[in-house]
TrEMBL record:
Pfam families associated with the record: YdbH-like
Superkingdom as given in the UniProt entry: Bacteria
Protein name: YdbH domain-containing protein
Length: 941
């Protein structure tokens, strides 16, 4: 308004100046009049002024070829200017009766900042003047207008007639040729404006524009804009009684074809992003139309929508935006320093159905916004919602922002960089606090936690996915979310996340169960698509690749993701690890260690201990996330077994109930490999003087086990060929074996192949050869005894007065079942003749027991057998049944007569409740009773 008033005032001052000069120079007449006019124009600030006075009287002046500015670029140029005046009134009141100008040219320049200037008018040359008009009538005819900008120009014609007593009218016609102002360009268009000043004083304006517009990549074709308005009494304005405007207007507009994104550059695409965000899709073409009623006065400016004519933006495919009046409140109002806006809106497209309202208020530097929004459906490439409610209210006071957001979201999908989140409904409320000059906004969760009933996550280009059950994102220290845009925009998220259950996968690597609680600080930089996370993990109970259960974790990690690679590193202070299989061949262990992830390759180091705190050893390994394949080697040195400390069953659950109370040490290494095809494993052990109770209940104790074992698989167990161990003692109660050597093989079919297990025994050997025992069910190992010396057996029995000689051989089939061992159909036979002699206390006392007992013990004083057979049946840790058969000769004294070489045949069945009785005198008493029974006629010949 100021620039327009300044230009009009300039024209009035110019005309008045010419008239005054003309009157003053009347006596000098024409020869000096032209010079005087040009000098006066230069003094008024006009550059290179030109004027010729062709007529001069006390009643008027006629100027021809009046111009200012360089040739061909004049600021203005009038062919004729005629001024009528009464010279006395001119000199006293500086007023003229009439001004008639035209035809002519008027040129104005409009800068990119919107400043209007007249070329050829020096700074400060505008002169001064009041609001009162210096003329009674004005006629401008055929005035050519040129409005020029850096982009182009608008050219048209101005005509005006005005009479101070009766009013008048003015008309402007302009046609654009790429006329541009700031971001708006009018490639082609026509403007018609008519101003009517009625004799009654009323003011009427009719304005019309038709043409094309272009702004920030959006092209509007065939735009139609019409303004029909009324203003205040024009007489009050020119008479100085009113210095503001007031009135009303009706504005209607129509743009049947708006093309979005016509300029394909990044800046334009960024500017069009809100359109795509609002409609959930790109909009290439739409039509816009609407009507407004405007009322303005000294203190109020209001814009209202007609109830029957909301503003609509409609695309050919049905996509549309409607903005409607919100109750009785105006669409926009300015009252003094207070601005308000209030409206309802609805958005519809193929994927969007949303509605809401907005109330906006500004007073001084304080803004207030309230906007409830209902989203029945929303779908865009970045975000999809169902049945969502948004309640937003905020205050911007200067640069300080405070806002509250209540959100009930049926989140179907959200894309954040390369991370997509789907099927994650939640309800929460947030508080935002920020400072625009500091370019920072902090967002706090007004409740303690955000609860997601479920959720799916996927990391694009990494083949990483997660499926979560009930999940909570809780506050940590400070704000939950921080946005900064001082320089690059950065978003940081700080909190603690926990889930009831979930499943995770990276390539072929997967984990399922309850993930650990993670306290984290995540930073996302959209410009370079980089995400970094620092976190602390605690708890959890997950199964890794359906093989290893990990629980009770304590650790920390760093993670980074950019368009090139994913990286992570971490320290695990503690985690419990055990096999997830129902049948476990490794007991639970406690691990700590470190790991490094580069792309999809992971390397790790760790140390293991038992849950009781016994150190086991250290290991290293690697894992390929994409193929779920990898390997690890665990080594241990001088692993010590103590009765009150580490025991073998703490390492291998299968040994529980088989061995116990172990002592000694071991060195070795265990290797595991894994892939989609399965698990490979192996181990090598060096056993150093290991002793233990067992194995099973069949053996009381095994001591002094030494040697090396190499396994090429742990499940099922298989050895790398035949393995050999030495043993000091195998004490099976009834069967004690010492200083033996065992060669065996595990072929990998749940059996043990005993190639050779041999011990020295009573001057001969006892052992098993080429025997096979199954790990499941009963197992039979046939022991074979060779060249057993009876003399050493009887020495072992240590019965006073009992001796003998001879050599025995036989077999003892051992059957192992339910952790116990028994002999089935064991038999020993003499390799040749031998003798048994008993001259102990029981023989001396036999005569007192009767004649039969005396006879029996007479034979036993020197029983020379030619064959001897012993059968054995029963449990090694319980009752044993012996069957003895002697056939031979002995000496007998009958009635003081000695009878030599009397044939004797003994058959004795003997039950021993416990083999410990062998080493007790009770054995002899049992034999004595059996001998008496036999000699009484039930078994002796």
């Amino acid at each position: 308004m100021g620039n327009k008033m300044r230009a009009a005032r300039f024209l009035a001052i110019l005309l008045l100046l010419v008239a005054i000069i003309a009157a003053a120079l009347y006596l000098i007449r024409l020869p000096l009049a032209g010079w005087a006019v040009r000098s006066a124009m230069a003094g008024a600030g006009l550059e290179q002024p030109q004027a010729t006075v062709t007529a001069l009287t006390f009643d008027g002046i006629r100027l021809e070829k009046v111009s200012s500015g360089a040739e061909a670029r004049e600021a203005f140029q009038f062919h004729v200017i005629e001024v009528d005046y009464h010279w006395r009134q001119l000199l006293s009141a500086q007023k003229v009766a009439a001004v008639r100008a035209g035809p002519g040219l008027l040129r104005v320049n409009i800068s990119d900042g919107g400043q209007v200037s007249i070329p050829g008018l020096a700074s400060g040359g505008e002169g001064s003047g009041g609001a009162e008009l210096p003329f009674q009538s004005l006629i401008l005819s055929s005035i050519r207008l040129h409005a020029e900008t850096s982009a182009g120009s608008a050219v048209g014609e101005l005509s005006a007639e005005f009479e101070k007593e009766t009013g008048g009218r003015a008309e402007i016609e302009l046609e654009s040729n790429n006329f541009g102002l700031k971001e708006l360009t009018i490639p082609a268009g026509k403007i018609n404006a008519e101003l009517e000043l009625a004799e009654s004083g009323s003011t009427a304006l009719v304005f019309a524009f038709k043409g094309d517009m272009l702004a920030q990549g959006v092209a509007a074709n065939n735009v139609s804009l019409a303004i029909d308005g009324e203003g205040v009494n024009w007489r009050d304005l020119i008479e100085g009684e009113r210095n503001t405007v007031a009135g009303n207007a009706h504005i209607s507009f129509s743009a049947p074809q708006i093309l979005f994104g016509s300029a394909q550059n990044q800046e334009t695409l960024n500017q069009l992003a809100p359109i795509e965000l609002a409609f959930g899709q790109s909009v290439s073409e739409a039509a816009l139309e609407g009507e407004f009623d405007v009322n303005f006065s000294d203190s109020v400016f209001e814009v209202r929508l007609r109830e029957s004519a909301p503003v609509t933006l409609a695309a050919p495919d049905g996509t549309g935006l409607t903005i409607a009046q919100s109750g009785a409140a105006p669409l926009y109002a300015l009252r003094g320093e207070r601005e308000t806006a209030s409206f309802q809106f609805a958005i519809k497209s193929a994927g969007v159905n949303a509605a809401g309202s907005a109330d906006i208020e500004r007073e001084n530097d304080r803004w207030r916004v309230a906007a409830p929004i209902t989203v029945e459906q929303y779908s865009s490439p970045e975000l999809s919602l169902d049945d969502s409610q948004i309640e937003f209210s905020g205050v911007l006071n200067g640069d300080d922002l405070t806002a509250d957001l209540a959100l009930k979201s049926g989140l179907r999908r959200a894309q954040i960089g390369r991370l997509s989140v789907s099927d994650a409904p939640f309800t929460s409320a947030f508080r935002a606090e920020g400072n625009l000059s500091a370019q920072t906004v902090n967002i706090y969760n007004r409740e303690e936690c955000i609860t997601f009933e479920r959720g799916q996550l996927r990391l694009e280009e990494q083949n990483a996915e997660a499926s979560l059950g009930r999940t909570q994102l809780c506050n940590a220290d400070g704000p939950l979310l921080v946005f900064t845009w001082a320089g690059d925009m950065v978003c940081s998220l700080n909190g603690e996340i926990s889930s009831a259950n979930g499943r995770f996968s990276l390539g072929e690597t997967s984990a399922s169960g309850r993930p650990p609680n993670i306290r984290f600080n995540a930073v996302y930089n959209p410009l370079d698509s980089r995400t970094t996370i620092e976190g602390i993990a605690t708890g959890g109970d997950v199964t890794l690749n359906e093989m290893i259960d990990l629980s009770a974790m304590i650790g920390r990690f760093d993670f980074s993701l950019d368009p090139a690679v994913m990286r992570a590193s971490g320290v695990v202070d503690r985690v419990r690890a055990e096999q997830s299989a129902e049948l476990k061949f490794i007991t639970p262990v406690i691990a700590d260690g470190t790991f490094e992830l580069e792309g999809k390759d992971t390397t790790f180091q760790y140390s293991l201990m038992t849950p009781a705190g016994n150190a086991l050893g250290v290991g290293t390994g690697r894992h390929d996330m994409s193929t779920a394949s990898g390997e690890t080697t665990f080594t241990f040195q001088d692993l010590r077994f103590e009765p009150e400390g580490l025991q073998p069953n703490e390492l291998a659950p299968g040994l529980k109930g088989i061995v116990s109370a172990a002592t000694g040490g071991a060195d070795g290494a265990v290797r595991f490999g894994w892939s989609k095809e399965g698990i490979t494993s192996g181990a090598n052990f060096d056993l150093n003087d290991i002793s233990f109770d067992g194995p099973t209940l069949a053996v009381t104790r095994t001591t002094g086990v030494n040697g090396s074992v190499t396994l090429n698989n742990l499940l099922p167990v298989s050895t790398e060929g035949v393995q050999t161990l030495t043993l000091n003692i195998v004490d099976a109660g009834a069967l004690e074996l010492t200083n033996g050597e065992v060669s065996f093989e595990f072929p990998g079919n749940d059996t043990l192949q005993l190639k050779r297990g041999e011990f020295p025994w009573f001057g001969g050997t006892i052992g098993a050869y080429e025997a096979t025992a199954s790990f499941s069910g009963a197992a039979t190992i046939p022991l074979r005894a060779e060249n057993i010396h009876l003399e050493q057996v009887l020495d072992f029995a240590s019965v006073e007065g009992l001796s003998g000689e001879g050599v025995l051989s036989g077999s003892l089939p051992l059957v192992f079942e339910d952790g116990k061992a028994r002999i089935e159909n064991g038999v020993f036979r003499s390799n040749g003749p031998g003798a048994i002699r008993y001259t102990g206390p029981a023989a001396d006392a036999a005569s007192a027991a009767g004649e039969n007992a005396q006879v029996a013990f007479d034979f036993l004083r020197d029983l020379r057998y030619k064959s001897l057979e012993v059968t054995v049946n029963g449990a090694l840790d319980g009752q044993l049944d012996f069957g003895l058969r002697f056939e031979g000769t002995g000496d007998l004294t009958v009635r003081n007569q000695s009878v030599q070489n009397v044939p004797v045949l003994y058959r004795i069945n003997l039950t021993v409740e416990n083999m410990d009785l062998i080493r007790q005198a009770n054995l002899l008493r049992s034999i004595e009773l059996k001998v008496q029974e036999e000699l009484s006629g039930r078994g002796a010949n």
